[in-house]
Amino acid sequence: MIGVLLIISQLISFITVEHFVVEQKNRTIMYLVTNQIKLQYISAETEIPRNLSIGLSETTEMELFWLNGAEPPQGLENSVEHEAFTSVAQEFLGEGTLVKVEISDRVYVWVNEPSHPEYWVRMPIGEYDGSMPISFIIFSGMLLFLSLTGAGLLVHQLHRPLKRLAFAAREIGRGDYPGKLKETGPQELVAVTSAFNQMAADVHQLEEDRTLLLAGISHDLRTPITRIRLSVEFMSDEDEELKQGLIADTQDMDDIIDQFIGYVRYGSEEQKAAGNLNELIEQVVEAASKQHSGLEMHLAPLKDLRFKPMAMKRLFSNLIENAFRYGSAPVLVNSKVKKNQLLVTIRDHGKGIADLDKARLFQPFARGDKARGGKGSGLGLSIVQRIAEMHGGDIRLHNHPDGGLEATFEMPISDRD
Q1: What's the Cα-to-Cα distance from 311 to each of 315, 351, 378, rounded to whole Å?
Q2: Of 76, 108, 132, which residue constitutes the final position of a domain?
Q3: Nearest residue to 415 via CA among 318, 310, 313, 308
Q4: Which of 245, 234, 390 is nearest to 312 (CA)?
């Protein structure tokens, strides 16, 4: 918008100078030229002393050429008709007046007026070089270029803090605290940056308070859960079925507490590090294979990426655990690279989910199809989604055509944040 305004300003300036400076100069020049021509004709047609007439011609350097069928002089042949001069001269000498401009050792005008059509008057007008001099065009172009360059630098300086603000906003959205931004720039931008810094600090403090609160609650809950677990171990063998049920319930409660803590933290304090994601997937699959059978893996070669190792382990272990808990073996883990995107798919061979509403499934405490079971707190997919977004990626779920549910983790392999 600034560039368009500058261009319009330059055009208006050009038109203004052309009208109020160049055109006025043209009128002044032709006014003097036509008056001298009139005076020359008067001296030729009246009883003016000869020495006065000669002095007038020598002073004005005016020359009178009578053609009347003769060959035109060389200067007239090299001259070019000047529309602006002609238009002005016709106001002073009448319709039919013709003005040409000759540029040789100096700049001359040739004037032919209708009352003396057989005569051409030649007169020097100095160094004036036309109604649109090249120097003026060059000057206007340079002025426009410098104005646009200055505007570009100004806009760039304004955009830098805005880009930092946008980047910091994305960091907060991913759960990271970007630190305090430098408050520079115009007064309005300083006010916005200051408000953003205050908001970021408040959000960070709120996250810490929430983590501390949940950690305290989970710590206090684990003590009675442990006592219940120990008490159950002393139950008689006659109540073995009840005993195993209580043990399973206490284990579920412990797992739910872990999920609450994982949902709050989900790796926000962990720093990214360069590493091979295939090696991390192999570690997760190897650990899962000790608890489940029917786990297969096919990984494509990958270059080193920057990611949060513990958070990424949580992502893949949650997806694999969900595949065994809600689906059935075999569970297939595959990775490939497609258009600078890393794709890791985890597919089970269960019944799938009839209602694949992503907006609902990835909400905290949401559950999938009841046919896939009812265990857990409903935070697993929410944690997975947050970790994926933290890495600039995404999680997609779809029912495989050959049966089962397939979860696809997608992440840009060019990520260097």
Answers
A1: 6, 29, 18
A2: 132
A3: 308
A4: 390
Q: Is residue 52 pLDDT above 60, yes or no?
A: no
Distance, in Å, from the CA atom of 395 to the CA atom of 188, rounded to the nearest integer, reads: 39
Euclidean distance between CA atoms 336 and 355, whole angstroms: 27
Contact 370, 385 (CB under 8 A): no
For residues 345-364, give the mean pLDDT: 76
In a domain, residue 55? The reply is yes
User: Is 170 a member of any domain?
Assistant: no
Q: Give the 3-state secondary structure percentages of the chain, helix then strand then coil, rounded to 5.
A: 55, 15, 30
Which contacts qualify for 111-115: CB closer than 8 Å, 24 or more apart? 111/33, 111/34, 111/37, 113/37, 113/89, 115/41
Which range has the top average pLDDT, 41-50, 178-187, 395-404? 395-404
CB 280 within 8 A of CB 314: no
- Check if the beta carbon of residue 125 is closer than 8 Å to that of residue 107: yes
CATH of the domain at 300: 3.30.565.10
Q: Which domain range does residue 36 map to?
A: 2-132
Q: Is the residue at 261 inside a domain?
A: no
Q: What is the DSSP letter of 336?
A: E
The model's confidence at residue 414, banded by pLDDT at 50, 70 and 90, is: low
Contacts of 213 (CB under 8 A, 6+ apart): none
The answer to whether residue 259 sits within a structural domain is: no
pLDDT for 49 beyond 70: no
Report how many domains make up the chain.
2
Q: State how far the Cα of 258 lies from the Cα of 205, in Å rounded to an integer.
A: 22
Among 112, 132, 152, residue at a domain's last position:
132
Token look-up 């997760």 returns 284
Residue 4 backbone zone (phi > 0: left; psi -120 to 50: alpha; other: beta)? alpha
Whether pTM exceeds 0.85: no
- Are residues 384 and 262 in contact, defined by beta-carbon separation less than 8 angstroms? no
